Every structure is written in C-alpha cells, then in structure tokens.
C-alpha cells in the first residue's frame, strides 16, 4: 500500500547527504533497521522507486530517511536538489524483518557501517536511547574523510552521553588531525579491537557497499562469530 | 498512476523495454543477502532432493556436473528493483533432477548452506524453467553470487533463486521461507509486481 507523504523538514548532514523528514498520515510504525520504498511519478506517468533505510525509530506519523546523493542517479539528485517542503511523494513500508534490532534485546550489539550504511545503524542507536536501553553498543564507522561523517555532531554527543555506546571511526582517504593511524580500508585489527569477542554472543549488524560488507562479514566469521548472528545489508550505486 | 512529484522527470527512456513494471536496468551485478557469504568446498558439496515421504536423492559435485547440462540465457529481476538482461549460465535442469522422483507434492522449499530457505510451487521448477547452475558468464559462479551452485528460477524475483543451494524439500503444504516470513510475497512474479505480502 502506497501512502502519500509530504516533506516536513530537510537537514543537511554532509556536502552530499541530507536527511528528509516526511509526514506520513497513517504510518503504522516500524523497527529500527527497516527500510521504505519511495516512489516518484513524473508528469507523463513515468515512475521510479528506490529503497531507503529509515534513519530514526518510530515517531508517530513522521519518518526520516537520509539520502546520499549519487551524481548520475535518477532519484537521489531529485530528492536532494529539487524536492521541496510540502511536495508529495509516495511511501511504502516498512519493509524488512531481518536486519532489525528490537529494544528488548539484551545481547551486546556491534554495528559496522560503511559510508551511508550508517543510516539504519543510527536508527538502532537512536532507538536504544529513546527506549532507555542499557544494552552495550559499539559502532565502527568507516568513512572516507571527516567531512563525510553523517550525523557527526549527534554521534559525538551520544558517544559522550549515551552510557554504554562506543563509537570508533575508520578513515579510508583522509583522517582528522590527532587521529592515530593512517587512512586505510577496514581490516581485522579494526573489527577485532572495536568489536566484541564472540564468547559474549553479540548481535552484529553490517551495512554498506557490497565489497565492504563482504569484507567485514568474512572477518567476523573468521573471528568466530556464528553466521546466524551476523546480519548484513548491502547496497550498490543505484541512485 | 500515482501522485505527481513536481519537477520529477526521470531518466530519458526508450519506449521498447523488456523490463517488468517498477524495474530499472543495471549493467553490474549487485549482491543481496542476509548474512555472511558461505564458503562450501566442492569435495563436501552435495545437492539433496527430499520427497514428501522422506526419500532422499543425492548428487555430489562430480555427479551434478556429470549430468546433461543446459546453458540458459535469461533476464534477472531483483525485488530491490534492478534488472539485468541476457545473463548466461550453465547447469542442470530441475526436470533432469526431478525425473524419476516419485512425488505428488505441489510445493518445494529450497534450502541453502547457511540456513536460507525459500518456497516455490513445484510446477514452477518444471518445464525447463529452473536449474541448479554452477557457471556464470563462462566461469565458475563466484561465492558472493551463490557459488559453487545456486538455484536459477528467472521467471520469479531473484530471491527465489536460492544462492548456495544445498537441496530442495518437496512438500504437500506450502511453507514460507526466510524472506517470505519477513514480509516478502509467497510467489514473487515480477510481471505482476508481487514484491511484498498482500501484493
């Protein structure tokens, strides 16, 4: 069932990523980690739909998605450049029942995000806070440069204020001053030192581009995490 | 037609299209799966067909690749909306595997190394429309695309083409698999846009 939503608010997250807050009358609620389909219709009836992860926990009839602008994309440049407050868009969802975290879970959680793969993981971090959960969370966030960090201010604040939440960064192109180490692609040492040992039986959520997810999931399995506790969500450059 | 989004034009597009509704073309080969990629050594790989009475029919890697081979060229349609046209595979028709299997079952549940499952009507595995494939585009099927062998049922959305396929259980009653339990459609016809439960 497609619902008609309207843009309520837009937040610029990075030079290429924006969060869209949508009013969706009749929204049934969702779990952190789920996604929605957004559908656009042109004057001539042509339609294009894409999936976007929900960025926040359920909040009445408002939902948030964070859109990474793909330069040659068909949908994302429209959403970041043209789509205006009050404009209608069609929304379907929530979708997905596997890559989700429920706030009554108590097992430690490892979140590993690459680029805009952080979006559904942020929904889990926000849901944890909103529910007053004390489940231990660790986020390992791989990103090109400090300027590409989505939710940078909020993550800084939450790492300070949300007890039991640790945030570690892996920079692949350029690191900030004072960061220990050279820029590099995520590897065994990153996952090992910022993750949980398998004997604590954590739930692991990995989201990002395909190559990133393949690498991290293989590392986690290699470290001894059972495959059923490693949940993955992959995306390609589909604009 | 849905509500018009002001200023949205979409990509320039040709009128001729082999695409089901709601799909767009991709040239690369995206990957979708729920967890880590299983790695299955060929010397322990096997395919097990289990009838509704529990009778088992097993093929080792050498036995499977020794059967008569098909080389289907087919279009793929993923529920996440990408389609890839004209892909070429090599493998064994399910007609070959089902030949000689004594069954009155109407449903099948494919299961994979790693625990994944997906359900299909048994009729959809017959009639030259489904294969166990081990070769893609002339080379061994890469693990991230389901190698060493996957199911290929191109007339349904791609999640029905179970990667890392380990076997098929024949069932008298339909039983939803992994993604179907998570809200995806039981049948999954791309031309009817059967994406989610209720479509």
UniProtKB/TrEMBL annotation, chain B:
UniProt xrefs under Pfam families: Oxidored_molyb (PF00174)
Superkingdom of source: Bacteria
Disordered: annotated segments: 1-22
Transmembrane regions listed in the UniProt entry: none
InterPro entries reported for this sequence: OxRdtase_Mopterin-bd_dom, OxRdtase_Mopterin-bd_sf
Annotated Oxidoreductase molybdopterin-binding domain residues: 35-179
Classification via PANTHER family: OXIDOREDUCTASE MOLYBDOPTERIN-BINDING DOMAIN-CONTAINING PROTEIN (PTHR43032:SF4), PROTEIN-METHIONINE-SULFOXIDE REDUCTASE (PTHR43032)
Protein name as it appears in the record: DMSO/TMAO reductase YedYZ molybdopterin-dependent catalytic subunit
């Amino acid at each position: 069932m497609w619902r008609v939503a309207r843009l309520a608010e837009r937040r610029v997250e990075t030079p290429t990523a924006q969060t869209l807050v949508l009013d969706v009358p009749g929204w049934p609620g969702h779990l952190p980690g789920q996604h929605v389909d957004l559908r656009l219709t042109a004057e001539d009836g042509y339609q294009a739909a894409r999936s976007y992860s929900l960025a926040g926990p359920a909040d009445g009839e408002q939902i948030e998605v964070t859109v990474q602008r793909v330069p040659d994309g068909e949908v994302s440049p429209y959403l970041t450049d043209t789509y205006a407050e009050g404009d209608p868009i069609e929304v379907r969802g929530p979708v997905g029942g596997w890559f989700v975290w429920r706030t009554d879970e108590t097992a430690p959680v490892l979140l590993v995000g690459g680029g805009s793969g952080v979006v559904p993981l942020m929904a889990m971090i926000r849901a944890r806070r909103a529910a007053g959960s004390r489940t231990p969370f660790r986020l390992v966030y791989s990103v090109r440069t400090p300027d590409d960090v989505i939710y940078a201010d909020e993550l800084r604040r939450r790492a300070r204020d949300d007890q039991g939440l640790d945030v570690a960064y892996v920079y692949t192109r350029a690191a900030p001053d004072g960061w220990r180490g050279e820029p590099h692609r995520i590897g065994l040492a990153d996952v090992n030192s910022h993750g949980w040992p398998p004997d604590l039986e954590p739930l692991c959520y990995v989201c990002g581009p395909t190559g990133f997810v393949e690498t991290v999931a293989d590392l986690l399995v290699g470290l001894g995490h059972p495959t059923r506790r490693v949940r993955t969500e992959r995306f390609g450059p589909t604009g | 037609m849905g509500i018009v989004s002001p200023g949205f034009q979409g990509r320039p597009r040709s009128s001729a299209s082999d695409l089901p509704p709601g799909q767009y073309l991709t040239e690369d080969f995206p990957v979708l799966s729920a967890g880590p990629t299983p790695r299955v050594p060929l010397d322990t790989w096997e395919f097990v067909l289990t009838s509704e009475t529990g009778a088992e029919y097993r093929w080792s890697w050498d036995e499977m690749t020794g059967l008569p081979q098909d080389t289907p060229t087919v279009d793929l349609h993923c529920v996440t909306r990408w389609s890839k046209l004209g892909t070429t595979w090599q493998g064994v028709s399910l007609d070959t595997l089902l030949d000689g299997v004594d069954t009155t079952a109407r449903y099948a549940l494919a299961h994979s190394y790693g625990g994944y499952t997906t359900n299909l009507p048994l009729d959809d595995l017959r009639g030259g429309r489904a294969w166990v494939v081990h070769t893609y585009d002339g080379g061994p099927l890469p693990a991230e695309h389901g190698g060493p062998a996957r199911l290929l049922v191109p007339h349904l959305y791609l999640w029905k083409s179970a990667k890392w396929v380990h076997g098929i259980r024949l069932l008298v009653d339909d039983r939803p698999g992994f993604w179907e339990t998570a809200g995806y459609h039981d049948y999954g016809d791309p031309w009817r846009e059967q994406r989610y439960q209720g479509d």
